[in-house]
Write a structure and sequence with these properties.
The protein has 219 residues and is of the alpha+beta class. It is built from eight helices and eight strands. α5 packs antiparallel against α7.
């Protein structure tokens, strides 16, 4: 899991007939982690959430924020060259929990959600509700083995993603995600009521990816 700090997240789209993501493999040498977006997002639908198939992005790329560089300039030319469009976010991380070490789980699937705030909320109100959701998720999403929140500091791109938060939810595997996403039928109503307090679902996007936790494994 990313430690508390500042990071760059780039969402890249090259379409169904676009480039091979292996063309970005060399970026790992510069500290980028590359997470392919699953072409089939229907596991979210089966879990009781909402997926988008085909997804609007094909890869998510992460790295620590380099000091002193404008956000748009951090995006490598290799990403710009193969992408139809891209969006970059400067994020500040707030880890919630990590059960993977104690359980021996190596997560095989992750949900990354780009969260649009309810328009009537101030930034501090959104953040307060976002943080308070951790306690709700801990009870009502038993399949999550690792959870991190990120505040959006700045956005750039072609076009930019106008969101205020990003969440990462790790799961052992797809079957666990589908079977235990909610603790019970009653949990669905509890979670959705809590989400509606701060999330504008019309501008929110969730994506399933194959996680790359190389920094964690090498530590």
């Amino acid at each position: 899991m990313a430690e508390r700090g500042e990071h760059v997240l780039v969402a890249a789209a090259w379409g169904a007939e676009g480039a091979d993501p292996s063309a970005l493999g060399h970026l790992s040498e510069d500290g980028w982690r590359i997470e392919p977006v699953l072409a089939d997002q229907t596991a979210l639908d089966r879990a009781g959430s909402r997926g988008r198939t085909p997804p609007p992005f094909q890869a998510l790329l992460w790295r620590e924020l380099p000091a002193g560089e404008p956000l748009g300039a951090i995006v490598p030319g290799a990403i710009r060259a193969i992408s139809e469009h891209w969006a970059a976010l400067h994020l500040r991380a707030h880890p919630a929990w990590d059960d993977t070490t104690a359980s021996g789980i190596e997560p095989q699937i992750k949900q990354v959600s780009f969260l649009k705030a309810q328009p009537d909320l101030t930034p501090s109100e959104f953040t307060r509700n976002f943080r308070e959701h951790v306690a709700v998720a801990r009870v009502h999403h038993p399949a999550i083995c690792r959870y991190a929140q990120h505040d959006v500091v700045e956005a750039a791109g072609d076009p930019a993603l106008h969101v205020q938060g990003v969440s990462e939810l790790w799961f052992a595997d797809e079957r666990t995600l589908v079977d235990r996403y909610f603790a019970s039928p009653a949990s669905v109503a509890v979670v959705r009521a809590d989400n509606r307090e701060y999330i504008d679902f019309s501008g929110t996007l969730s994506l399933l990816v194959r996680p790359d936790d190389t920094p964690k494994r090498s530590s």
